Structure formats: structure tokens, C-alpha cells
């Protein structure tokens, strides 16, 4: 296995050790979560875990989990969830996160909101000293008037770029919305202020800032696992 994929799998395996029989799980989205869902599928098939159900945060995760025979629930059926597990694009020293490069930020945040605990799985390349330095901040917006957010982002010190596919089409989220990627020169100085200012705007559905939400971050590196709480 590619060494980077092995790190993701190591983090996912550690997160799986937090899962006990009968738990209702939030199942995040992304390449690291792919390993978690895969390992969870193995554990159910082998009978080392039983009675598990999950709420997927994207159609991709729904498809993978269904293929692996993981019983699925709608969010209102599963809530309160025992544990949400998800990846991240950035993790800062306060365990605040940027998420959403995979485009699933809205459902991911709704699932975390419904969970009693939230564990993040990542490789150590996601560690940053300041959010917004490694990745842009994804923002889900309704299609109507999306361009009107660009000057507001500029006022916050960010360059907003509509996310497009390789074919040049605007990317649509699972919810039919658009994504703006906000590039902050030098990172995000005050993530809470940015979150409040963006969330106050009509037309902004959700941001990829996950602040004060993570209970534990499992980071896999070449020298082993680092657990932050
Ligand atoms: C999707 C996300 C993912 O969790 C994030 O992009 C990390 O993905 P990966 O594990 O592939 O690096 O927020 O919306």
C-alpha cells in the first residue's frame, strides 16, 4: 500500500478501536474515512463488532457503507449519535479544523452536531499552526447570487474562488449548492470572527470551520500515532 494510504489506514484503525457494539456512528467523508468504513465493514463481516449503524455524511460514503453491509440510518433516526468519525483538511493546536475539501461540510457538521463525541482521523500532513495556511476555507452557498459573497470575502481578507470540476463546470454539493474556496493570505487570524461573519450572511449555508467540536484527533505519522485531546 502507498505509504500515505497506510498512514490514513493506521489512523482509521485506531478510531475503530473507539467503537463498541451497538453504537450509532456518524460516518464522515474523504479518503481517510474510506479506510474507516472499509475496516468497519470488515469488523461487521468478521463479527468482531455487531449492532452498529451509521449515518453517512455524503452519497459517496452512503454508497460505500451500503456496499459493505453497514446498516444505515437517516440523521433523525440515529440522533443522538454515540460517535462521529471524520477526516479533516487542517487541524490546529486547539483541535479546531478546516473541513470540506471533499465538499461534504454541511452534512458533516450536522452529523457532528448530533453526536455525543467527535473523533478526527488524519495523517500528520494536516497539522497546521494556523487554520487557512494549508488549505482554502470551503464555504457552501446557495446558487442564487453566489457572486455577491466575493466582495464580502475580500473584506475578510480572502480571495473567494468558485469550485469547478476538471471539466470546468461548477461543482454541486450533495445538497445542490455551490462551493466557494476562500484563500486567506497568511491564514485565518480569528477563525471565530470569520465564522460569525460568514454565517451571518444570507445565502451562506455553512462553512468548513469546525471550531470547538473535536474531542479527539488521531494523527498518523511515520513515527507512529499521535493522539490529541
Ligand atoms: C470532506 C472533508 C474530508 O474529511 C476532508 O476533506 C479530508 O479528506 P481526506 O481524508 O481525503 O484528506 O471534509 O468534506
UniProtKB/TrEMBL annotation:
Molecular function via GO: ribose-5-phosphate isomerase activity
Could you say which EC number(s) this protein's record lists? 5.3.1.6
Q: Which residues bind substrate?
A: 29-32, 86-89, 99-102, 126
Question: Kind of enzyme, top EC level?
Answer: isomerase
Q: Does the keyword Mitochondrion apply?
A: no
Keywords tagged on the record: Isomerase
Pathway listed: Carbohydrate degradation; pentose phosphate pathway; D-ribose 5-phosphate from D-ribulose 5-phosphate (non-oxidative stage): step 1/1
Catalytic reactions on record: aldehydo-D-ribose 5-phosphate = D-ribulose 5-phosphate
Q: Where is the active site?
A: 108
Q: Does the keyword Nuclease apply?
A: no
Family matches, as Gene3D superfamilies: 3.30.70.260, 3.40.50.1360
Q: Which Pfam families match?
A: Rib_5-P_isom_A
Q: How does it assemble?
A: Homodimer.
Family assignment?
Belongs to the ribose 5-phosphate isomerase family.
What this chain does, per the record? Answer: Catalyzes the reversible conversion of ribose-5-phosphate to ribulose 5-phosphate.
Name of the protein this chain belongs to: Ribose-5-phosphate isomerase A
What species is this protein from? Gaopeijia maritima
* Gene from which the chain derives: rpiA
Amino acid at each position: 500500500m502507498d505509504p500515505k494510504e497506510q498512514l490514513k489506514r493506521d489512523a482509521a484503525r485506531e478510531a475503530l478501536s473507539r467503537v463498541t457494539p451497538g453504537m450509532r456512528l456518524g460516518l464522515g467523508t474523504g479518503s481517510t474515512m474510506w479506510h474507516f468504513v472499509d475496516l468497519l465493514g470488515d469488523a461487521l463481516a468478521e463479527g468482531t463488532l455487531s449492532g452498529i449503524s451509521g449515518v453517512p455524511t455524503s452519497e459517496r460514503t452512503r454508497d460505500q457503507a451500503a456496499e459493505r453491509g453497514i446498516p444505515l440510518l437517516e440523521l433523525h433516526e440515529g440522533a443522538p449519535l454515540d460517535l462521529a468519525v471524520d477526516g479533516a483538511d487542517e487541524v490546529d493546536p486547539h483541535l479546531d479544523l478546516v473541513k470540506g475539501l471533499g465538499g461534504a461540510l454541511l452534512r458533516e457538521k450536522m452529523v457532528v452536531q448530533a453526536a455525543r463525541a467527535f473523533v478526527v482521523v488524519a495523517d500528520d500532513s494536516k497539522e497546521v499552526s494556523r487554520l487557512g495556511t494549508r488549505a482554502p476555507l470551503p464555504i457552501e452557498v446557495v446558487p442564487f447570487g453566489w457572486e455577491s459573497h466575493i466582495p464580502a470575502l475580500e473584506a475578510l481578507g480572502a480571495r473567494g474562488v468558485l469550485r469547478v470540476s476538471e471539466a470546468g463546470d461548477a461543482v454541486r454539493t450533495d445538497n445542490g449548492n455551490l462551493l466557494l474556496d476562500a484563500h486567506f493570505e497568511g491564514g485565518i487570524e480569528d477563525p471565530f470572527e470569520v465564522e460569525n461573519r460568514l454565517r451571518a450572511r444570507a445565502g451562506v449555508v455553512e462553512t468548513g470551520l469546525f471550531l470547538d467540536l473535536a474531542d479527539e484527533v488521531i494523527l498518523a505519522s511515520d513515527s507512529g500515532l499521535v493522539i490529541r485531546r
